[in-house]
Structure formats: structure tokens, C-alpha cells
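DM from R.C. (forwarded with permission)

"hey, sorry to bug you on a friday — could you get me a structure for this? deadline for the figure draft is monday and I only need the backbone to look sensible"
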Amino acid sequence: MPEADDAFITIGITCYNAEGTITRAIKSAQKQDWPNYEIIIVDDASTDTSAKIVKDLIKNIKHAHLIVHPENKGPAGARNTILENAKGEFLAFFDDDDESTPDRLKAQYNKIIKYETAHKQNIVMCFASGTRRYNNGYEMDLEAVGSRGDASVPYGDAMADRLLFYGGSQDFFYGFGPPTCALMARVPTLKTVGGFDKSLRRVEDVDLAVRAALAGGHFIGCPEKLFLQHATQGGDKAPAKNLEAEQQLARRHIRYLTKKRRYHYALLWPKVRYHHFMHEYGAMGLAILHVMLYHPLKVPSQLLNTGLKRLQHEHKTKQKKA
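My reply, with the result:
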């Protein structure tokens, strides 16, 4: 398939207190082998020297622009600022602590065009596969949603069900979900589904994907590894904030979840995860029993399908560096 090198793509990078990592993120954006692109960096009222580092780094890069928020708006607000200012037909999000390979834009653009042409779809969200590296050197493969051929591509209610209550058809491949750091889509597509919900301080990417799915969207992925994610921990990733955001997500989609008879599951299961991460195993057991009052068959199945994998993963992340 010929490449339309004249297509203009926006790379969007949100930045918050990332003085130690933002340089490598921007440099990986600069090294893209796509000829027509811009870089928009939004500093979300950082309290460190991030904004100054970005300003100095891009002062001689004509196609790079810095927007500084006077007050913190959160990831959703920062991404909406990128979306509002994007001049590209397509928008690819890079995280401030990730590195993308030089061929990432090309691979995702070609994937979208090929899929749109073959399937005549208007709402297509494309995700990159990658690698997550932990401080101890352990690396985890991040296989993108829908990256095992067109037959594996989830769409519509199946994707929404997977994201909200671990439902969905077993015929599809859901990979590691729909994180914004791996996303490319047409700018009109992102605007059509309403952009990001700025009231969500976490899981705003899941909410965007749910709304895209309910609008009939298709979720495709590139099988090749196109980014390296450096696993970091911060206050915005604390278990309590995740719990709050995940329950807020369930309430936001209460009408759909009630129709599916899964509202209580979507609302209560995050408490199980929260108590697990906090090592509150007695409270975790009570939370499991609470969910089982509403879904006695779903809970054991979920524990069997994901519990062992979660424990194995956590063990690997905590092993001492060799």
C-alpha cells in the first residue's frame, strides 16, 4: 500500500513534573521518520522545571509548540488542550516518560488507512504494541488490542463490556487495553466522541474508549513494538485515586451498565483491587463476598481468569534487580 506522506500528523505530549524524562520523550518524537508532523507539548502546571526544559529544548524546532496551563487540569484536560490545538488530520499521543520508535507514526497511520479502506469504518482507534520496563529490569510485553489480525478486532458493545466489567466476546483480542499513550486516531474521530472527560483524573482513556465503542468504534492494533514505557509511580497513580476514578466511571455509564445488569459489578469490583493493592486481605475478602451477592457466578470466573496472572506479574515486578 503506498504511503500518503502528505498526511499531516500531530504528536501530542502531556507533561507534568517530568523534568527527568520529558527530554527523551520529545527526542523520540523528533526522530519520527514521517515527514509531515507537528509536536504539541502541554505542560499541566508543573511545579518542577519541566516547562523550562521543554522551552529550551524546542526553541529551534519550528514544528514544536509548548502550551503551559496556568493551573493543573489533569491528564484529560491536558489532552483536550492538545486536541483543540491540533492542526493534523491524525493525532498520536506520546507519554512524557515513554520513548517511541522512529517508525511509530508510519506504522499506525498505515494500519488505520488499510483498515478503513477494507472495512469502510469511520470510527477507528489504533493502538501500538510496546514494552513496559520496571525499575528492577523486568520487561513486560504490551500486545495491542486487535493486533492479531482483523478477525481479532473488537468493536461496539463487546469492547465497552470488556472495559466496564470484563465482558465481551472471546472471539476478540483485547490486549493490554486502550491506553492513550499508545493511541493514534483521526482528529475528527476524537472530537466526534467528545474528547476526554476532564472530571476524571484517572481512567480517562478507558472512558474515551467506552464512548467510542458505544458509538460503534473499532479498535485495531499494530503487532510490532513501537514504544518503550518506563513504569513509574506517582501520587496520581495511588490506589485510592484509581478506586475513586473507576467507581466514577461506573456511575458515568450507569444507564448502559444497568441495561447489561452489570452496574454493581462495575461499581464494586474496583474495591477488590484496591484492597489487594493495599494488602488489606480481610477487607478484600469481604469486598469479594459483597460483589458475589450480585454476581455469584461472575466473580469466581474472574478470579480464576486473572488472579494467578496478576500475582505472577506482581512477583516479577518486585524481584531484585539482577
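R.C.: lifesaver. Strands lie at 9-15, 37-43, 64-68, 90-94, 98-100, 124-133, 139-142, 183-186, 218-230.
me: no worries. The chain is about 45% helix and 20% strand.
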